[in-house]
Amino acid sequence: MNASSSPPAGAAVNGQTTAVELAGITKRFPGVVANHDIHLTVRKGTVHALVGENGAGKSTLMKILYGMQKPDEGTIAIDGEQVAFSSPADAIVRGIGMVHQHFMLADNLTVLENVVLGSEKLYGIGGKARRKIKELSERYGLGVRPDVLVEELGVAARQRVEILKVLYRGARTLILDEPTAVLVPQEVDALFDNLRELKSEGLSVIFISHKLGEVLSVADEITVIRRGTTVGTAVPAETTPRQLAEMMVGSELPTPETAESTVTDRPVITVDKLRQQMPGGKALLDDISFTIHAGEVLGIAGVEGNGQTELVDALIGLKAADSGTITLIDEEITAWPTRKRREQGIGYIPEDRHRHGLLLEAPLWENRILGHVTEKPNAKGFWLDPKAAQEDTRRIVEEYDVRTPGIDVTAASLSGGNQQKLIVGREMTHKPRFLIAAHPTRGVDVGAQAAIWDHIREARREGLAVLLISADLDELIGLSDTLRVIYNGKLVADADPATITPEELGSAMTGAATGHLAHDETPDTPADTPGTPEIRKSPESPEDEAR
């Protein structure tokens, strides 16, 4: 690892010319300097990773490169020529494309319609556009079919459509923001193959991720940002994930402790034969049954879109299931409204923080109240207590390391990771009996991720029951006491977190390992067969679990 430096615009770096050069970029907002004298040089035909803690300034820097914001100081050079962008349209003209973490596709349109939308002047909307899409898809190994409806595509295929969109517009440098956040290991491998194909054709990729192992496996160079400024570069072959993480935070990371089991025999939440159907008859939830005990984390593994959202909505009361029951401790709550469930001790970390977790234009202290309007310290009797809520917000900001100039700024002004830390702090503050944690560390850096895990483990030791849904398989395996796989709305398999690998779990999630039995149930398979996943069929109901 070494200190960052920037060559003259257009100069060759290690025998390769520069595709993008940001020099001395500074961007100020009221009360905060988001970027200060940042330097970033991306070589043509390379994958260049950009890493840093939440709030380090990565998103602001990429918004500047993509023309969404203007820098207060500094210069941008593309292919050696200094440029100034007033909008993303300017950046697109100069070959900069951005694939956002949250996909921007219309489900009710075909792939072709999504790709050409807004760029009809390039190749029209008919045969010429279809031929161009097919050409790009084949050239870069994207495997995209133009006439398929987007709503029929899985997460990985949707991401390839997003990449195709920017290539269709002539992008030569692609910005990928957390591209592996919702992918299983096999899909990550396929994405990395696509990226290698892109750079072999001379294109450049700026890869933003908090998954440092993936960064080291795919990147040619890594730039580290800390507190708004570049602190160094790293060559993947010469560093480790831990060294990279310590470079990001500026200090050594604590060594994780081995967690002991805290599972009790006291049921907290019991779900029995929960079922929900689409109007056409397709099952979104297919006889879902499980019990979570005090001190237990039940992890649900599955590719997004297999019923996780519907399960969470039913548990928190956003949308009732068609049949089945939900019991909290010893009281059936199936018909309870969301507020009553919250008041009786159900915490909720939503998968979509913008839709269900925050009021983006409201100040942080008002967001701290959401979901807990009637509870202390937010309320005193029948009245809100703003002063107490504000004071508690300051405590959450400090305890959960929410990077913000103050509690009166809007939630929209925070980075995604800091928004997530605020939500986690809000929910854990009220000491829930049962916590629904849907992607609790999505978009947060390694330091914040470890801190959130510690908060969940500490609450589990005190008797918290947790339903954990995550696309991070290391998180699922590391936090869960019990693992179950959901596929097409049905719990199809169990896995032992102590023995399962991410690759084996990813295989089960895609349906490839569905139906594998435990070793002791398969006479022809020795119990110690190397590489055999410890996956078994899921019981159909709590009664089956008891047997």
TrEMBL record:
Which terms in the Gene Ontology molecular function aspect does this entry carry? ATP binding; ATP hydrolysis activity
Bias class Low complexity marks the residues at: 524-533
Ranges for domain ABC transporter: 20-252, 269-513
The UniProt keyword set, sorted, is: ATP-binding, Cell membrane, Membrane, Nucleotide-binding, Repeat, Translocase, Transport
Regarding the membrane, this protein is recorded as: Peripheral membrane protein
List localization entries: Cell membrane
Extract one GO cellular component term from the record: plasma membrane
Which SUPFAM superfamilies has this protein been placed in?
P-loop containing nucleoside triphosphate hydrolases
List all Basic and acidic residues biased stretches.
534-547
For region Disordered, the annotated ranges are 508-547
Return the SMART domains for the record.
AAA (SM00382)
Q: Does the keyword Cell inner membrane apply?
A: no
Which PANTHER family would you find in this protein's record?
Answer: CARBOHYDRATE TRANSPORT ATP-BINDING PROTEIN MG119-RELATED, GALACTOFURANOSE TRANSPORTER ATP-BINDING PROTEIN YTFR
Name of the molecule in the record: Heme ABC transporter ATP-binding protein
The protein's organism comes out as Streptomyces resistomycificus
